[in-house]
Amino acid sequence: MAEASAGRTDNPLKRLAGCGQAPWLDFISRDFIASGDLYKLVQEDGITGVTSNPAIFEKAIGQGEEYAPEIARLLQEDKLLRREQIYERLAIEDIRGACEVLKPVYEATSGRDGYVSFEVSPFLAHDSWETEQEAHRLWEAVDRPNLMIKLPATDVGVEETKTLTAQGINVNVTLLFSVATYARVLEAYLRGLEQRVARGKDIRQVAGVASFFISRIDSAVDGEIDRRLAEGDPDSAALKALRGKVAVACGVLAYAHLQEVLASPRWAALAAKGAQPQRLLWASTSTKDKAYSDTKYVEALIGPHTVDTLPPATLAAFRDHGTVRQSLPGDVEAARAVIAEAERLGLDLPKMSEKLLAEGCTAFEKAFETLLDAVEARRMEVLGISEPIAPKLISCKAAYPLWVEETASCCYFTPECEDDELIQRIWARDPKVWTGGKEGEWLGWLSAPRDGLEHIKQYEDFARDVKAGGYTDVLLLGMGGSSLGPEVLKEVFGHVPGWPELHVLDSTDPEQVAEMAAKVDLAKTLFIVSSKSGSTLEPNILFAYFWAAAEKALGKAPGAHFVAVTDPNSSMEKTAKEHGFGHIFFGNAQIGGRYSVLSPFGMVPAAAAGYNVRGLLENALLMADQCNPEDAWDALSLGKGLGCVGSGSSSNKVTFVGSGKLAAVGPWLEQLLAESTGKQGKALIPIIGEAPGAPDKYGEDRFFIDLRMAGETQDPKLKALLEVMDYSLAPDWVDEKYPGYEIQMDNLLQLGQVFYLFEFATAVAAAMMEINPFDQPDVEASKVETRKLLSTYEQTGKLPPEEPFAVDGDLAFYADPRNAEALKKAAGGRTDAVSLLKAQLERVKPGDYVGLLAYIARTPGHIAWAQEVRHMLRDGLHVATAAEFGPRFLHSTGQAYKGGPNTGVFLQVTSDKAKDLEIPGHPYTFGVVQAAQARGDFDVLAARDRRALRVHIRGPLEEGLKKLSQALQIALKEADHVRGS
Ligand SMILES: O=C(CO)[C@@H](O)[C@H](O)[C@H](O)[C@H](O)COP(=O)(O)O
Ligand SMILES: O=C[C@H](O)COP(=O)(O)O
């Protein structure tokens, strides 16, 4: 600020008061208040008020480092603060600080001066209810009598001026560009006062100003004049003469109107009751056209009952060389003549003022958004959160731009439900978004990140306990939704030095269970038994097994080494209490298993393993915030892409490619998509773990999701595949051309965002598919069949007998009569393995998928075997393939295989168990349970008319697997597909 005449006992600024004008400062900032500079201006230069607006706060808070320490401090106190709250706290603090500095002025003038203005959010400019609420909220939050709440002069703002004035709130109405609007604003103020009087309230302490923007009027008019001059307008001389005159003329006429009103009997009545006039405040007083004097607008409009708010540079200029002369009321007739001349010359002032108001609102909105973005960037920096991830469409030859264009604007829901309305309705928990059933009761996941952060202390305390417990391992026992999220976390974040290593067991295979028991140090293992319902068979029998094992290893009741994660009032809670578990964590009963990773089901194991729970939840919250109706484009776009391919299209093989550790997201995503959408004959069929292959091995039914770290190049095979794939010739339905999305992460904590993004997108997809994404009827069906078989076992000591319909050496073939007959017939009566497998493979048609369902231990060797077989089948049959292990997939893709479209061809693999394991307290073994699960699964597949065949390996498993893959290889070579190609 220029200091030329600062500190002089007398200077032009100080002399303004003598003309009845109050000079205010059009600026605010923390340092400016803290350094005493504002105080000095008040003391030495006679400044008697302060105005702020979103642009001013943007300059103060949004630019530079001034507020960085304060933002960090606020976040240290409360890490859950969002950007709007941070801004508000900062702004309120500044406004209060300025109010304090100006309090002596306020008191000395008995409330006639000494005000500080604080503007309501510019986004509320057209909403009356919200404006009023916000005005009250800010008024109460600042809690200073010399505050003025600032509203824009929109219709809503004018109306609210009356209401708020009547309620005793001081109002500054801003963005005035015409005398007509000013008259309405003054009228609103008078009416507000009158209403207040009518209610018997005191009006002496109610103040108001009407902010008339001066220089912007000249900028608009002069701009139009210049445009016409450049075009060689015939009125050029008259137009030129009008340059720089209209703004002051408007000001003079506005002032004339004020005087008229102040001279009226109506005002006299109010004045008698102690009313203060609503002062005219000249805003936008800096000169924009360098050809004019830098004090032009101040000098032209000096008079009683006015305020002039000066930005620092104008203030310094006026203090330095301003001329003080009471220029108001001015030459009113001359001012009228200027306006008349403008009209004669075709300058449409009313239209210009409307435009200026609209532009003013937009500019404040922009400034506010920039300010909030700056605060958000700082918040993220302090909390160590990175940018929101954004799924990008994977472009595929010519087809994609067309798709983007079509879907960007199109609405896939109902004619009454546009995209943003859909998002609003999801947040409003409206079940009609889906099927109008019970969906509203399953939306607890929407707020899981925030809920988790609110309970962060419980995770942090637990983590501390676990660390102090000296455990070497954490073993999570659970299935599906209770195990797949923790498994992703384990694979991605690994073993953190100084913390126990996390393991996840979701199998009933005796070999796999025994292997896990041998792998961990049972005496130093913390067991997390995880089951939402508490009634799931697998976690219960795994608990029975490991409880006994731990008891043996510890030589005492091991309760302290056990943790339960379950929904309130479940049988698991009862078990945990009876057994004296060290901790019991409760899930939210409004979150289904596959949506539970951000709830205690994912966060408890994460905390135990020393992972950054806060960081994950912060990232998830960031994505949740992104999924609001205004910003949800990314989740919406992904969801719509998925919804389109899931709505009856054959391009529903959602092929997930995750680079490096991110491949581990596959099984979690697989469950989310398959269980949520695979029902009523519709489904997204997830294909995970399939390595990208040569383009000619694919059908036209893929939708890719490529997840990788930023900077990593796309898998070259996938890249080549996408370049070659061209669905542009797909029939009628343009949506069949989607190749998919790619998502890049900057850091691993963004996994929190990935989880939330896919949860939200899946809910959107299900809305398009018109299904309930939160039930899993066909998973239940398998469980029922398994229970029946096990109860037979309990009664008879055996599973019901069954006969293979064919045997070839160590390979025995089982199926229901329909499938067995069809296969035997297709094999021409031959019952050797190659003929039967060939018959099964020949049932595969383009657009189908093959599911290899192996009820064997999920060991690295067996995974490699399954992968080899599935790639061989993919390449030979040109269809999507899934390689799954039972019973794990029953809690996941099993739903879609049974409830989705009948496009799956299944090869179930079971085996004799070389070594079985007893389950303490149960009549059956793990081997029996797994066998019953395979049979229950098959029964339901058969009941749903699926093309299914079971191969049972007798004798040594590895040899059997080898024989099976050899037989498949031959069968494939002989199968029609290959022969015909
Ligand atoms: O509070 C007010 C008016 O009440 C002021 O802060 C007002 O917003 C500013 O004077 C203007 O925004 C500045 O306008 P301009 O100089 O950028 O045209
Ligand atoms: O996906 C969920 C699984 O079926 C396990 O359910 P649960 O957590 O109730 O044991």
From TrEMBL:
Is the keyword Isomerase assigned to this protein? yes
Q: What is this protein called?
A: Transaldolase
Annotated function: Transaldolase is important for the balance of metabolites in the pentose-phosphate pathway.
Pathway it works in: Carbohydrate degradation; glycolysis; D-glyceraldehyde 3-phosphate and glycerone phosphate from D-glucose: step 2/4; Carbohydrate degradation; pentose phosphate pathway; D-glyceraldehyde 3-phosphate and beta-D-fructose 6-phosphate from D-ribose 5-phosphate and D-xylulose 5-phosphate (non-oxidative stage): step 2/3
Q: Does the keyword Transferase apply?
A: yes
Origin organism is Oecophyllibacter saccharovorans
Q: According to the lineage, what is the superkingdom?
A: Bacteria
State the reactions this protein catalyses: D-sedoheptulose 7-phosphate + D-glyceraldehyde 3-phosphate = D-erythrose 4-phosphate + beta-D-fructose 6-phosphate; alpha-D-glucose 6-phosphate = beta-D-fructose 6-phosphate
One Gene Ontology term of the molecular function aspect: glucose-6-phosphate isomerase activity
Q: Where in or outside the cell is it found?
A: Cytoplasm
What does the record give as EC number? 2.2.1.2
Q: Which HAMAP family match?
A: Transaldolase_2
Give the record's family classification.
Answer: Belongs to the transaldolase family. Type 2 subfamily. Belongs to the GPI family.
